[in-house]
Design brief:
- The chain is an alpha/beta fold.
- It is built from 4 helices and 11 strands; from the N terminus they run ββββαβαβαβαββββ.
- The longest helix has 18 residues.
Length: about 280
């Protein structure tokens, strides 16, 4: 219990540093340097999660001929990243935390968001694109170049990178994304969370939310630098024993929202790796 309120964590901002204050706001010696009490969140409050697909990368270009690779953004991708960062900065919700995949295209996109929101980037290997981690969820030092010649959803228990040992399957991939979501559920209740990630990860988030079995039957297409917003409802039982969302813990608010890209040039059609049938994301 903090400050007389059960389940509340208080955060105090001093200069550019944020400190977790337990037991109220004790004397810190900061005096006039204590700028503000940022926010208090009750555990069980809804969490808003904004999933941002990275801006256009070199691997998304139709004429890219080098297979899977950890590449950065194109000039257009940087324009897209700036546009989505500006949208988040001018939105009605104050963002509390910023996560990003550790792949270059996502991290570079996140740098634009970080500057716009004045938030540090929390890198997370679990939200890297499918095939770029080992089956133990650790990232490859050098990512495999080639995917298998099948869609991952058609063989969900087979490695999507069969040319290398210890390659992950779709189900390994979904497990690491699910672990990320469950950690957010426990640690980020009541917060506004941004995660800059990949199209395949957003697919896996939908699989998690909608309790999809191993064999997915619906494709979900996500544009570069688009916004997908989902809400994790308050699952704390009320006086009548019923949680706010009942058994439906997740609420989808929007998917593939690209309204902020109206002033950005339209990219070429989404590219897929024709030899493998795996979308490059």
């Amino acid at each position: 219990m903090v400050g007389g309120l059960p389940g509340v964590r208080w955060w105090a901002a001093v200069g550019n540093q944020v400190a977790d204050v337990v037991g109220g706001l004790p004397g810190t010696g900061w005096g006039a340097e204590l700028r503000c009490l940022v926010v208090a969140h009750r555990h069980g409050d809804p969490m808003q999660l904004y999933l941002i697909r990275h801006g256009q990368s070199l691997v998304n270009l139709a004429d890219w001929a080098h297979g899977n690779s950890d590449e950065g953004l194109t000039d257009l991708g940087r324009q897209q990243a700036q546009a989505v960062a500006q949208r988040l900065a001018t939105g009605s919700d104050r963002i509390d935390v910023l996560y990003a995949s550790t792949m270059r295209r996502a991290h570079e996109t996140a740098t634009f968001v970080s500057r716009a929101l004045d938030l540090p980037i929390l890198p997370d290997d679990r939200i890297r694109e499918i095939g770029n981690n080992r089956l133990d969820h650790a990232p490859w030092p050098d990512v495999p170049t080639d995917y298998g010649d099948f869609w991952a959803t058609s063989r969900p228990f087979a490695s999507v990178t069969p040319g290398v040992e210890q390659g992950e399957s779709l189900m390994h991939f979904r497990t690491r994304v699910g672990a990320f979501l469950e950690e957010l559920r426990l640690d980020r209740a009541g917060q506004q969370v941004v995660a800059v990630t990949h199209g395949g990860v957003i697919d896996a988030v939908f699989d998690h939310m909608f309790n999809v079995g191993p064999w997915r039957h619906c494709q979900v297409w996500t544009s570069n630098a688009s916004v997908t917003q989902v809400e994790l409802l308050d699952d704390t039982p009320r006086d009548n024993g019923v949680a706010h969302g009942g058994p439906e813990r997740w609420r989808l608010h929007r998917h593939n929202d690209v309204g902020h890209l109206d002033a950005v040039p339209t990219p070429a059609p989404f590219a897929a790796d024709g030899a493998s049938g795996q979308a490059r994301r």
